[in-house]
Amino acid sequence: MADGAERSERTRHRFPPVPAAAGERPVIGLALGSGAARGWAHLGVLRALEAEGIVPDLIAGCSIGAFVGAAAASGYVGRLITWVEALKWQDVVSMLDVSLRGGLIRGQRLMDFFGRNFVDRDFSELDTSFACVATDLASGREIWLHEGSVAAAVRASIALPGLFTPVVHDGRVLVDGGLVNPVPVSLCRAMGADIVIAVDLGSDMVGRAWRRAALEPAPPEESEAGWSERLFTRLRFGATEPRAEEALPSLVSVLTGSINIMQTRIARSRLAGEPADVLISPRVGQLGLMDYHRAAEAIAEGEAAVARARPLMRFVLEHEGED
To answer: What are the extents of the domains in the chain?
Structure first.
């Protein structure tokens, strides 16, 4: 829960009014959670919701949820799906601009591509009301971004500590919003949502690195150990020592496993105090931090998760406002 000072800061936010829905139906908000490459499941969720005739009036995103949410608020979901389904791991590597300060990846190549192809607009110009979450590294406060450059806000929201470099925004050093609010239901409420549909990507994440990842293990170059080696090779710290038969997990596995534990615990706590009306939980624990090339798998599971939640979702939408 936020302390008094943080609550006071939040009350100063002024979100644009949500247009009155036809027939004065309840305003639907969609909260898209953090989860790195698992976030492509959000695309399956969006596609399945549209097939159900459910189009959110506003979207709040955190980390990869901010990335996908910005594209959705701009009307670019179809274009983003086409792009991510064509990604190969070599394409992902080509997006990595290695840094020696603040994180392993600057992220500028990724955001330049994103800005050119999906979003290069001001928040006020978006088709759907949108905001995203970042974390103030100095104070630990949750920061809501909903003004100015969408691309700059998204870049701050995805600044995963240790991986992506932090972002300086309005005099603050900002990092990934998943440190404080991995599934931003509270932001959806503040934006004016009557009903919040939330997507939690971390429901089966803890312990993932020590479970069998898939029926067919990924090739070595696509494993998290392989990602770690490629990053360190670019930094000229290439691993040259022989590995013991019972080796410790890779650097990336340790980093992501720790972040998974942290974000899962935070998400459970926040969702207990700020529950969504409908919680959609794609089962994407088999996907690693950098498995952006496995989009088809994630998207399919996003659609399946909506199908599992359909009875509750329909009940909530049909009975909103009843005592």
So the answer is: 28-211+253-320
Whether residue 291 lies in the annotated active site: no
- Name the pTM for this structure: 0.82
Domain 28-211+253-320 maps to which CATH number in 3.30.70.1350, 3.40.1090.10, 1.10.10.10, 2.40.110.10?
Answer: 3.40.1090.10
Cα dihedral 273→277→282→287 (10° resolution): -30
Question: Which amino acid, one-letter code, is at 226?
Answer: G
Q: Across the chain, which distance is largest between two alpha carbons, in Å? A: 68
Q: Which of 34, 57, 63, 129 is catalytic?
A: 63
Residue 173 vs residues 30, 64, 93, 188, 277: alpha-carbon distances, Å? 27, 19, 26, 24, 33
Residue 91 known to be catalytic = no
Q: Which residue matches tokens 């990934």?
A: 176
Contact predicate 103/46, CB 8 Å? no
* CA–CA distance, 211 with 196 (Å, rounded to integer): 32
Query: Which residue in 74, 129, 157, 176 is the catalytic one?
Result: 176
CA 35 to mean position of chain CA atoms: 5
C-alpha dihedral over 123, 125, 126, 127, to 10 degrees? 150
Identify the CA nearest to 2 among candidates 139, 146, 168, 169: 139
Name the one residue in this structure whose structure tokens are 């006071």.
Answer: 8
pLDDT, tens digit only, all 323 positions of the chain: 344 444 434 445 778 777 655 457 899 999 999 988 899 999 999 999 999 999 999 999 999 999 999 999 999 999 999 988 988 877 776 666 555 554 455 556 666 666 666 656 899 999 999 999 999 999 999 999 999 999 889 989 988 877 778 888 889 999 999 999 999 999 999 999 999 999 999 887 655 544 444 444 555 555 555 554 555 454 444 444 545 545 577 666 677 777 778 888 899 999 999 999 999 999 998 888 778 889 999 999 999 999 999 999 999 998 876 65
Q: What sign does the dihedral 192-198-201-206 (CA atoms) show?
A: positive
Dist CA 119 CA 9 (whole Å): 28
